[in-house]
Q: What sequence folds into this?
């Protein structure tokens, strides 16, 4: 997520377009240098007498294959910025591409589509539950749909809003006389809020505070 935000910040500062591509079945494109065996977990279908075995290239092999492909396309580690650079952020099968030359971006996308089955999603508008709005020298990010999902999960749809994320001087403790809290659901909601902080830094302190109560002695 930090890579995505960094790319968007650089693009906004430089007035660059940000494009989006998606690799279909990214893990299957990796080249394994060793044999990998994974036994099918219980409840996932009938086992053979020897046990069902699956093989997957995994993230490491896919990243190595993608690195090699970009090197063959002429990419190298940058030591200086210049007018023909391309920035490519990779999150599994999602590629976020930006640079000052739209022609260079399109050429890169065409070259990648020759090597992998990919979808060209054009200008980046949505990635990793984050909505991206691109304007001239301005990029806005938000997570309104993701926020709605959290409210629905917490059964807070329709609740009254407030101007501050937490009541001032509220003291939180592990000891309570109320009904026991569903710890699994609590952790799930807090984990979702931690991801929401990416676009809502105003709730970072409160989320950090309630995160202290995710573990119990």
A:
């Amino acid at each position: 997520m930090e890579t995505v935000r960094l790319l968007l910040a650089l693009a906004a500062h430089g007035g660059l377009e940000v494009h989006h591509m998606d690799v279909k079945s990214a893990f299957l494109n990796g080249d394994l240098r060793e044999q990998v065996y994974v036994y099918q977990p219980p409840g996932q279908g009938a086992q053979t007498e020897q046990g069902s075995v699956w093989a997957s290239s995994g993230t490491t092999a896919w990243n190595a294959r993608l690195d090699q492909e970009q090197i063959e396309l002429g990419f190298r580690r940058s030591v200086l910025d210049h007018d023909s650079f391309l920035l490519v952020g990779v999150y599994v099968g999602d590629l976020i591409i930006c640079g000052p030359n739209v022609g260079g971006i399109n050429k890169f996308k065409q070259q990648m589509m020759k090597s992998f089955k990919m979808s060209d999603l054009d200008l980046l508008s949505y990635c990793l539950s984050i909505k991206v709005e691109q304007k001239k020298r301005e990029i806005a990010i938000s997570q309104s749909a993701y926020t709605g999902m959290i409210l629905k999960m917490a059964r807070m749809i329709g609740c009254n809003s407030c101007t501050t994320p937490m009541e001032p001087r509220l003291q939180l403790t592990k000891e309570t006389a109320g009904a026991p809290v569903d710890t699994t659901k609590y952790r799930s909601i807090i984990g979702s809020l931690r991801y929401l902080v990416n676009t809502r830094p105003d709730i970072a302190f409160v989320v950090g505070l309630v995160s202290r109560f995710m573990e119990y002695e």
Notes: The two ends are 31 Å apart (CA to CA). The mean pLDDT is 81. The first strand starts at residue 17 and ends at 23. The helical segments are 2-14, 58-72, 102-115, 144-153, 183-196, 204-211.
